[in-house]
Amino acid sequence: MIDLGPDDYDLPGYFRHGADGRSGPRWQYYRTRTAGHNTLVIDGCNQIPNARVPITGSCTDGRCKWAVFDLSAAYEKPAGSIRRGAALIGRQVLIQDEISPDVSGTITWSVHTTAEPVSVSGSDACFQLANDRFVVRILEPETARFELDFPPAAGSFPIADVRQLHSHTTRPSAVTRNSELPRRVDDNHQRAAGALIRRLQIVWPRGARRLSVLFLPDYDRDELAVPVTPLDEWLARRPVRLTRYPRSGLWTAREVAGKEVAILGAPAVPAEIGARAAVS
Fold it and tell me: Residue 183 carries which DSSP code?
């Protein structure tokens, strides 16, 4: 997962944020828009750039570390309407988003990557980067599906006054347009000259209130996982219940310590596990 970084400073209006901080021409460019970042987009609109987004809880003790953010203000929603939890469990990363019933519209979850896709099918996406292979897996809801595509092509925009360009002394006076940077990462200190950037996304299923996605590095090894639990359970700071899933990647129930425990992402989590197994 990568951040695309800034674009060409000579794009028209690149530093004009608008009187309200969010309606200026700066926000027409992909690298500055919400869609160009690894977050949620609602109805194709940008987040409010200067919104206050509090951390409502966090923990850095032990093997599992997590934080919960209230993103509501960034979307002009009431406090607590849109929350994101991020947990680091060993080397696994869990991203869990939750929305309240009053949040509607088309919601898109996305991340950007330069890794080569091995397979993208349903709730699993496998990538290769050099000698490392990793998997991204949708744990909840069951109806969510991955889509893989490239970001939109770089746009070209007219230049009103070439004398206002940062590099106007070296540009020919005939230059009348400037383009966004290619959808590539930097390479050897060259801007946007490296590998192609791809966009992995999920269109949030209608009626779902929680979207949980797990990032699994070193997928050739056994991993530790936790049952999917509400963010309110994270905030309760109860002990995490770690379990193992088989290398085959099948999300089925198995016996752990003499008790049947649902592996993360199984259709259901037993009541006694759901009540106790929160991220801590």
Answer: S
Domain ranges in the chain are: 33-151+197-221
Q: Is the pLDDT reported for residue 85 higher than 60?
A: yes
Does the CA dihedral 44-202-39-267 come out positive or negative?
Answer: positive
DSSP secondary structure of 118-173: EEEETTEEEEEETTEEEEEEEEE-TT--EEEEPPPPPPEEE-S-GGGSTTTTTS-T
Neighbours of 163 (CB within 10 A): 10
- 3-class SS shares of the chain: helix, strand, coil, % to 5: 10, 35, 55
Whole-angstrom distance, CA of residue 111 vs CA of residue 199: 6
Is 33-151+197-221 in CATH node 1.10.645.10? no
Predicted TM-score (pTM) of the model is 0.81
